[in-house]
Amino acid sequence: MILKLQSKHNLIECGTDEAGRGCLAGPVTAAAVILPKNFKNLILTDSKLLTHKSRESLRLIIEEQAVAYAIAHIFPTEIDEINILNASIKAMHLAIENLKTTPEHILVDGNRFKPLATISHECIIKGDSKFLPIAAASILAKTERDRYMTALHMKFPQYNWNKNKGYPTKEHREAIRAYGLTPHHRKSFKQLPDQLSLDI
């Protein structure tokens, strides 16, 4: 499937997406990207459909060719305070606000968003496999968060975050059961099926 470059052809558009929403540990990370009008790439698509190597090579292309891009993290303490949906939207807002070029229209992956200033927006289900700017944002968010969790793994190797990136794998849950929670775990998430027995 060939992804579209724009939705509103007369406006400066950015795509935005997040990574890490369903994780037990680590930040939720969002990116925003404005691509040039002549941008073409036949490989770029939803980051979840690509290999690690492809994502990293595409990241270099996006950083080199984008008109503007920005990335933002919201960390577990704030996720626990405002909930993961609000944290995801806040991360997207921060990324968009940090763009060096202000967009006139926002393409959002998914079905939930809150208006940002006076900028128009549209929510697109599976937008990261339909629009290039959203796919580009998904690549930046995913690769940045993966790098963050890999670095964090050096301090907490028992959780194997370099592999599971904080997602609720069986291995991650077993490590939580054995070693407890770190300051990087989201306390508001159900960490274990028998959570009542976990001292948090």
Automatic annotation (TrEMBL):
CDD domains: RNase_HII_bacteria_HII_like. The keyword Glycoprotein does not apply. One of its GO terms (biological process) is DNA replication, removal of RNA primer. Its cofactor is Mg(2+); Mn(2+). A divalent metal cation binds at D17, E18, D109. The keyword Nuclease applies. One of its GO terms (molecular function) is manganese ion binding. Its EC number is 3.1.26.4. It is found in: Cytoplasm. It catalyses: Endonucleolytic cleavage to 5'-phosphomonoester. It is an enzyme of class 3 (hydrolase). GO terms for cellular component: cytoplasm; ribonuclease H2 complex. It comes from the Bacteria. Belongs to the RNase HII family. PANTHER family: RIBONUCLEASE H2 SUBUNIT A (PTHR10954), RIBONUCLEASE HII (PTHR10954:SF18). Endonuclease that specifically degrades the RNA of RNA-DNA hybrids. This is Ribonuclease HII. It comes from Leeuwenhoekiella aestuarii.
